[in-house]
Amino acid sequence: MPASAEPIAELHGVDPRALPEALLHADQPCVLRGLTAHWPISQAGAASADAAIDYLRGFAADVPAAVTVVPAAMDGRVGYRDDLGGLAFEHRPSSLPALLDELQRQRGSSDEPVLYMGSVGIDGSLPGFRAHNDLGFGAQQPLASIWVGGRTRIPIHQDLPDNIACVVAGRRRVTLFPPEQLRNLYIGPMELTPAGQPISLVDPAAPDLQRYPRYAQALQHAQVAVLEPGDAVFIPSMWWHYMEALEGFNVLVNYWWRQSPAWMDSPMNALMLAMLSVRDLPPAQRAVWRDVFDHYIFDADADTAAHIPEPARGMQGPIDLRVARELRARLLQRLNR
């Protein structure tokens, strides 16, 4: 990452027991220094990898889970084969206790595959862990997960939920790009992805600017920070992020939540449906539909359906669980023709 990258803004002294609403609804990222420094796992992680492994072993349940195996030649990057015809890693059945044993055995080795277990639900894999290591989200009910592994590099991607990622063992460098850098990040296939989200084809560790020249423009907007055990980063919805684990043993505790009703579908579904039904229309018709989307979606306000009696507004009125179910049923009926 070039030295010209801006540092991510930082907050100090945030109360981890009651995260402020302004933070949970922010649209700009920030590093939360020392947010989880009081957690026992962060204290163990700051002491040593062995101490962190021993602490996790005290909670780790012997339940089946998949471990990602990245060949040594990939230098920890979880991505595609060169021809994009498949993924350059594999998943193997394992468990968290078995992974901890293997990572402890591997430490100091540089010629073995890189292992990690990602986005594993904490409550199922580490029962009792959150009683001693948790954040206070008020009315929010985030999904809490844990990432345990070696020196991995997670390609540039974005997530729909807001995210607080807490480094509790090892160190991580996080590089962020604003959502509007989409065109400069060269995003790969949507159908075949390493973990469900499309990723950038650029390797930030060795960017090929002849093949991906606009990435140089994305770098002008990059923000970067190195996180130690006890530090966290807030990543707003749809911000692109690249996560590098800098040590041989790393643990990340992650919280995801959405600022939308539970009945709302993923906007990605709308994007895929628009590709199916709008993208390849003749230019003049596509322009008409751009105006239709602006009217009903992007510029919609109280006046959009004011001319329709309130009981008759249907999907043009306020959407609740009942209306959402009716809309979903209508869509399924139209798609299954």
Automatic annotation (TrEMBL):
Top-rank taxon: Bacteria
Cited SUPFAM superfamilies: Clavaminate synthase-like
Pfam families: Cupin_8
Domain JmjC residue range list: 81-272
Protein name: Cupin-like domain-containing protein
Annotated source species: Stenotrophomonas capsici
